[in-house]
Amino acid sequence: MNWVAWKMLNGDPVKYLGTVFGVGFGVLLIAQQCSIFVGIILRTANPVADVREAKIWVMDPYLQNADEIKPLSDSDLYRIRGVEGVDWAVRLYKGLARAKIETGNFRQVILMGVDDQSLVGAPAKMILGDVRDLKRPDAILIDKFGYQFLWPNQPLETGREVEMNDKRAVIVGICDVSAPFQSFPVVYTRYSQAVQFVASERQQLSFVAAAPREGYSIRDVCNRINSQTRSIGDKTGLVAMPYEEFIWLNIKYYLENTGIPVNFGITITLGFIVGTAIAGQTFYLFTIENLKQFGALKAMGVTNWGIIGMIMLQACVVGVIGLSIGLGLTALFFVATSRLLPDLRGLHLMWEIAGGTCVAVSLIIVLASALSLRKVLTLEPAVVFR
Questions:
Q1: How buried is residue 52: exposed, middle or buried, by Cβ count under 10 Å (0-12/13-18/19+)?
Q2: Strand pairing of 167-175 and 239-242?
Q3: Which domain holds residue 379?
Q4: 217 and 119 in one domain?
Q5: Is residue 122 a part of any domain in this protein?
Q6: pLDDT single digits (tens) 158-186
């Protein structure tokens, strides 16, 4: 019977391919848009995620995300270092600056100030130069894509100079970092240098990065910092949280306060509806056109369960092939665009999304099959003799 079901399915190649590519197109829309959505949301936390040495982040209690920052006082660093259980604590700066190159062109950049001594917060992967070169006077590192934006179609090289806040900065290295949420170049320098590259304020300390001493849990040290940094009459003090919690703080903010989830959710829903509509309509027409064949099979003694098995086999074949085509096109899309479009770098098809898409396709196939089953199950075998 399986062979009969297969021959009935591909008896009309045009309709067979239409059904397969209809499911494949729905899979492409669902998997591609889900991957882009998750990739963009994860970018909001990349500046935090790249500082892997810091297990604890300390910040102003009213901070909502890593892009809108209320600076801390320099004295807060020493208060945190005095908390029992803190192994080390260093200053970090994160902000925006304006970089001007020799031609007069300028570009807004994300400026990251790392600890002067330990260089905690510096990029882990270097393409040119050495991260220790940051200790040179006026030294900065720039990410590869930021360099290519400032100097398009020019080879990567160190020694170039830029101007930030009327001060000279020399590129001593080119690094590879995670793509930020904003499509700005990412520049790294020492903390003491970073505060000179931006407009001066009374307080400029963005975050304090820390790590627990051996024998102390991260959560316990965070609670100690929260309680011991409160002064008399101050009910809030500073807020310390684990690395992972700070990442989710950023992600949650953008999920709740931007239109990104709604926009991508509409596209993903449309992909599901399109896949269901195309597959359902094609399956229904396929069943109607083959009623005589199903009637003949029932007249020969094939039970309703046998007919259901044939239809489900046909649906599974279409689903598996359509799923393979859709996921393959999605992966090919990200491979091609990551090289051609820098703004899409770092986006890829995640296995969790591929698994979720399989569940969605299974639901599409079940719905499409259900539309055509009723006609077959209520069919009288005698219809074939009319």
A1: exposed
A2: unpaired
A3: 2-43+259-385
A4: yes
A5: yes
A6: 989 999 988 899 999 999 988 888 888 99
